[in-house]
Structures are given as C-alpha cells and as structure tokens.
Q: What sequence folds into this?
C-alpha cells in the first residue's frame, strides 16, 4: 500500500497478528484493556475462532514510521456477514443490495465476538501519531480495496469524535456498567441501594446459595482443563439456545488462560465438586469485563449471582473501578449496573446509502439519549436522605 500523507507513514495490512511481534503491538495497545492485547487476539486466531471458519478474516492495520518503528495499529477484519458484532447493520446491507449494490465484504475494526468498549485506533505513546492518522489509513484501505464500508465499533468517545470530524457517521448505543464508589465490601454497596432493592438483592443471593451450590473464583493457572471442558459445554449450551452459532472453539479457553494468566477470572458454581455453571471475566487495569456465561442446570438467580454479584465482590476486593457486564439486559439496572453510552463510527462509500444511514442515525441518536435518561431514572440507588 502507498504511504499515508502527510505523516510519512507506511501502511500495511497483516492477515495474521502473528506477523506483528507482541512487544510492538502491545506498545501501541497498552495494558488497560486485555481485549485489544496481542495475547487475546492471537488466541482467537490460533484457536480457529477468528478466521475463515467464522468469517472474520484478519486484516490488521499497521503504520510504521520512516525508521520502521510500529507507531499505530488497529484490529481489523474483512467480513462477508454482520454476525458477532453487536452493532447491527443488517438493514443497511439489505438496503444496498436491494438497490443493486454489494455491501459485503466490509472492513470491521473491532474485537471479534466481544462487545467491550475501549480504544480501537491504537497509537504508540510519544510517537507523535494520533488516531487521526489511523482514521485516514482506514479510509484509504476501504477505498483502495473497493470495500463498501468500514466500521469502528465500541470505540472510545475521543475516537468517536475524531472519526466524526473525519466524515464518518456516528452511532450511539448503550450498555450497563457497575461503578465502585470505594465500597469496602458487598454489604457497603448494598447500603447505597434503596431499602426495597437492598432486600431484593439479599434475597436473590440467599436463594442462589440455598440451592446447595459452592461458588469459587479461579484465576489463571487455578483454572484446570477440567474447568475449561465444562465451561465450553456451558458456552455451547447458551449459544445453541440463543443464537445457534458458536464462534469460540474449545481450544480458545485454555489458550486464553495460558496467554493472559491472572487476568483471566472464572466464576464457577459447583455441586458435589463438579462444575455446573461458569462465568468468564477478563481483568483490565481498572475494570473487570464480564464475557461468556453458561449453566448445565436451571437454578433461581444463579445467573445473577455468577455474572453480577460475584463480579462485584471480586471488583471490590481487587480495588477495581468498575464492572462491565456485556451487552443488553435492562434487568442489570436493578442490580446496580447503570446505563452508559457506547460509540461506533461508520464510513460508507455509497452516496445513497450514506445519506439514508445518516438520516436514520440523526433520528436514532436523540431517541437513544432519551432512552438512557429514562433508564437512569430507574436507578436502584437511594436518593439523598432516603433510608
């Protein structure tokens, strides 16, 4: 590919993250969010989870300066479908194809199968290269390869603004996150809730424990092959019930634990020493990220206990600032997870489709803002002076 003016950077697309050294990639990605680390993305590719089988073909963008130093990267994939993204553009694809155009392939800058907010335009600190250069490079790639569009999903607010200034269309979404107000333990967190919600959460935890289950939090090497085999069964069961397409292979989980070590946190429910449910989390610098969950049995409030309450317990004990419990789920509000905005940006080359999507987003954005305000009003936290 030609150089990207005016920074005198050389642009290259890599069909495997293994072509880029972990040290170079992570110098750009940093250590805040494990999902954009070389280790996580490599585990996806080496396990066969992200690749031809799943329709996520790596095309990682890399910018190097005149001395050959890697100064910016972006996790990017050529896609022939819109599955596993959590920011839905199926209607856009259908509209273009009805008009005689071709929406796929497209370029997706994202973490596969993971609706985790964080930086996507990853620039090496002190290099003098910022997200503007990566945005320009993505636009160049999209045009040079004749792709219909490029999409940067679950990016940061700052990246969203940079991409908007570069002419990308901007979209808002919402998730539900728990914030640590310096709680000493779970009981102190409960004390911040209204009396009715406090009683509800105590009852849910009590009933989950009354089912005769033992709850354990395992990290890194504590997670054995037996746990991963059971967890993959739980994951497949959840996927089969909800979506019917399991992207993550059985080999992914142990590879993840091998590469990320103590940052992998598995909440397990056991009955008579045998795992019956599990919730996978990854730990960042100040955040616990909830990812996959599954269970072999139906137990009241088990999902809430493993995915939400155990995560809060762990975050408080580790002094983490927040817990991000994944996409969707207004039921999370009543358990202390409040709505926050998520951001995506979309570069659409077809003029007619671009105008139609822009008009749709202009209507959608204020509706999303109003919905978040309404959801926030349902907060379980007690007002000042309330018992």
A:
């Amino acid at each position: 590919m030609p150089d990207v003016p005016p920074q005198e950077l050389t642009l290259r697309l890599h069909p495997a993250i293994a072509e880029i050294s972990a040290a170079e990639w992570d110098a750009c990605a940093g250590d805040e969010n494990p999902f954009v680390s070389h280790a996580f993305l490599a585990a996806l590719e080496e396990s066969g989870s992200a690749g031809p089988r799943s329709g996520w073909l790596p095309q990682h963008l890399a910018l190097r300066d005149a001395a050959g130093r890697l100064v910016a990267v972006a996790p990017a994939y050529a896609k022939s479908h819109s599955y596993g993204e959590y920011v839905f553009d199926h209607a856009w694809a259908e509209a273009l194809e009805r008009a005689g155009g071709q929406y796929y392939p497209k370029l997706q800058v994202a973490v596969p199968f993971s609706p985790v907010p964080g930086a996507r335009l990853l620039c090496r600190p002190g290099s003098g290269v910022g997200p503007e250069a990566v945005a320009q490079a993505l636009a160049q790639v999209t045009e040079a390869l004749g792709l219909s569009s490029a999409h940067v999903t679950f990016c940061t607010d700052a990246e969203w603004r940079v991409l908007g200034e570069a002419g990308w269309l901007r979209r808002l979404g919402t998730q539900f996150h728990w914030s640590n107000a310096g709680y000493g333990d779970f009981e102190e967190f409960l004390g911040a809730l209204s009396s009715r919600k406090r009683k509800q959460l105590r009852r849910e935890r009590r009933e989950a424990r009354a089912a005769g289950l033992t709850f354990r939090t395992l990290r890194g090497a504590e997670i054995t092959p037996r746990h991963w085999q059971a967890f993959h069964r739980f994951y497949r069961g959840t996927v089969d019930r909800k979506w019917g397409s399991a992207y993550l292979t059985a080999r992914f989980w142990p590879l993840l634990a091998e590469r990320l070590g103590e940052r992998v946190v598995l909440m397990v429910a056991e009955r008579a020493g045998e795992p019956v449910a599990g919730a996978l989390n990854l730990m960042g610098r100040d955040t616990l990220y909830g990812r996959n969950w599954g269970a072999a049995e139906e137990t009241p409030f088990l999902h809430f206990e493993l995915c939400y309450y155990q995560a809060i317990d762990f975050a408080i004990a580790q002094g983490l600032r927040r817990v991000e419990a994944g996409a969707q789920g207004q039921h999370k509000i009543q358990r202390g997870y409040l709505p926050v905005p998520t951001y995506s940006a979309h570069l659409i080359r077809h003029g007619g489709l671009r105008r139609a999507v822009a008009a749709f987003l202009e209507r959608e954005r204020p509706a999303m803002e109003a919905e978040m305000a309404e959801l926030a009003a349902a907060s379980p936290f007690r007002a000042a002076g309330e018992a």
Observations:
- The chain is about 35% helix and 25% strand.
- Confidence is low (pLDDT under 50) at residues 1-6.
- The longest strand covers residues 169-179.
